[in-house]
Amino acid sequence: MAPRTPSTRRKKAKTDVIIGRKDGKGNISFPQKKKKSSQQMAEDNKDKHNARKLGGILRQQARERKAALADT
Questions:
Q1: Going by C-beta distance under 8 Å and a sequence separation of 6 or more, which residues neighbour residue 2?
Q2: How far apart are alpha carbons 29 and 42 in whole angstroms?
Q3: By the 8 A CB rule, do 43 and 36 touch?
Q4: How confident is the model over 40-63, as a mean pLDDT?
Q5: What is the pTM of this model?
Q6: Average per-residue pLDDT for the chain
Q7: Residue 60: CB partners within 8 Å, gap ≥ 6?
């Protein structure tokens, strides 16, 4: 790696990068994130909860198996 002299240092961009999409007319639009319905949110939360619960059960079973092996 070459030493960081002014000539090798990366030049800063002069303009801020605009995050957006151009439509056919060349206009930049900022797409809004679609809001979830409260029903959808509740469903997602339930799924997350069940996944965590299952993970806990599986970990517990693994712990029990490990303990059983250690006893023998």
A1: 8
A2: 31
A3: no
A4: 94
A5: 0.40
A6: 81
A7: none
